[in-house]
Design brief:
Layout: E1 8-9, H1 12-21, E2 24-31, E3 34-41, E4 43-44, E5 51-57, H2 60-64, E6 72-83, E7 97-107, E8 110-111, H3 114-129, H4 140-146, E9 150-156, E10 159-165, H5 172-182, H6 191-200
Antiparallel strand pairs: 1-10, 2-3, 2-6, 4-5, 5-9, 6-7, 7-10, 8-9
Helix pairs in contact: 5-6
């Protein structure tokens, strides 16, 4: 991502928050056949270090060429939306833009054994099922059979680039105007993005 000091963050907490709220990632690798991208859910391990836990469906592990040496890129994207310059205070920038939060995380995937893979799948199911009215957790016997079609991954994140571009470089009136417009019923309505902007300037929502 293009570097901009107004929007860059080196805080691991930004990564944790984004993965928690938006746990769907794009895994990009330079595989044996060239660049390849796949899309899977991800959770972070319960450690102080940033470690991603996920899985891929076979034969994605071959397509990506996971060999314990080759680095992959995990792309996480939060809420995003268009910002019209017509929303800014008079005298402000007239350039249209896009507000967003994104993280690029780099690491070498480690292939898990069958037991570890089942544990990750069980945790993924439990994480997402907790939000439904009648959760159905992964039966271990059935899960062990289903897991044979997947490959579990543990990816220690060695470095990351985080960008939180939420109008931090704009004057206070323009920021408020953008938030107000995002909360309307117009064509670019996005209350969730407005919430992100509120948090970015240190307010509770």
């Amino acid at each position: 991502m293009r570097h901009n000091p107004h929007h860059a963050s080196e805080d691991p907490g930004v990564v944790r928050a984004l993965v928690h709220e938006h746990p769907w990632t794009t895994i990009v690798s330079n595989g044996p056949g060239g660049l390849v991208a796949s899309h899977y859910p991800v959770l972070l391990d319960d450690t102080e270090e940033l470690v991603a836990l996920t899985h891929v469906g076979r034969p994605d592990e071959t397509v990506h060429g996971f060999d314990g040496r080759r680095e992959s890129l995990l792309v996480f994207q939060g809420r995003h939306g268009y910002v019209s310059p017509s929303w800014y205070a008079p005298g402000s920038s007239r350039a249209p833009t896009w507000n967003f939060t994104a993280v690029h995380a780099h690491g070498v995937p480690e292939v898990l054994d069958d037991r570890e893979n089942l544990a990750v799948l069980t945790r993924l199911v439990a994480h997402f099922e907790q939000h439904v009215d009648e959760p159905m957790y992964l039966d271990q016997d059935w899960g062990a059979r289903a897991a044979q079609g997947t490959v579990g991954l543990r990816i220690p994140i060695s470095r990351f680039t985080a960008k939180v571009k939420l109008s931090q470089d704009k004057d206070e009136q323009s920021v408020q105007n953008v938030i107000d417009e995002l909360r309307t019923d117009g064509p670019y309505s996005h209350p969730g993005l407005a919430d992100d902007m509120e948090r970015a300037r240190g307010r509770d929502v």
